[in-house]
Amino acid sequence: MATTATKKSTHAVPDQPEHRGPAIVAVAVAVALYTLLPGSAVPVPRFILPVVATLLAIPLMVLNPHHFTRQTAWSRWVSLSLGAVLVLFNQVEVVGILITLLNGKAHGPTVLLNAAQVWATDIIAFGVVYWELDGRGPIARRLPNDPEARDFRFPQEDTGKPTPWRSSFLDYLYFALTNMMAFSPTDVMPLTIRAKALMALQSVTGFALLALVIARAVNILT
């Protein structure tokens, strides 16, 4: 999300600045889903994620309360940290589900509910990471003639001529959803090693939840 590497606040008015609403609502939903998760085998207190996410989100909302129009080096790192924290805590929950199943004491309905919540939270968490990581973030991507290399290529950008279209948070959220279900790229292609690594991690998580955990929970129910 940074437009410069300086430590001072930099004002940059991008082309049609993106609204903060969809991203902050999605993060709030992810935190709520995590907080409501049934207890797992991993001893991580539930209050840690809401507290950390709130502390990271407040300065970002103060800097850009409505639209993403300015960014600094510190806020770039804070925004990336917020996405990383969501992914990290959710991966811990995946481990907790697997441990519960391996112990042979899993309660079918609880495992199904837990897996569904982690699956939905994972989509939001990776959607936030993809959105923040691509290029230099949502502000730089809308600057005219931004020279920064992109991490993802959307089909709207393959017209062979300049286009006014700019990717928004909902585009990355949809991309995270399709990767979680298909375990591979669909219409959006990863261009960098870090993008491919993140997609691989999300695909493995999705496979573990859909193919292994939910299948095991159904066996328990029957």
3D architecture notes:
It is a single chain. The longest helix has 30 residues, at 73-102. This protein has 222 residues and is mainly alpha-helical. 59% of the residues lie in helices and 4% in strands.
Can you summarize this structure?
The protein is mainly alpha-helical.
Number of helices: 6
Q: What overall form do the CA principal axes indicate?
A: globular
Number of strands: 4
Count of discrete domains: 1
Mean pLDDT: 81
Distance between the termini: 49 Å
Rg estimate, integer Å:
19 Å
Largest sheet: 2 strands, antiparallel
Topology record:
Blueprint: E1 10-11, H1 21-35, H2 48-63, E2 70-71, H3 73-102, H4 108-133, E3 152-153, H5 169-182, E4 189-190, H6 193-221
Antiparallel strand pairs: 1-2, 3-4
Which key terms come to mind for this protein?
disordered N terminus, 4% strand
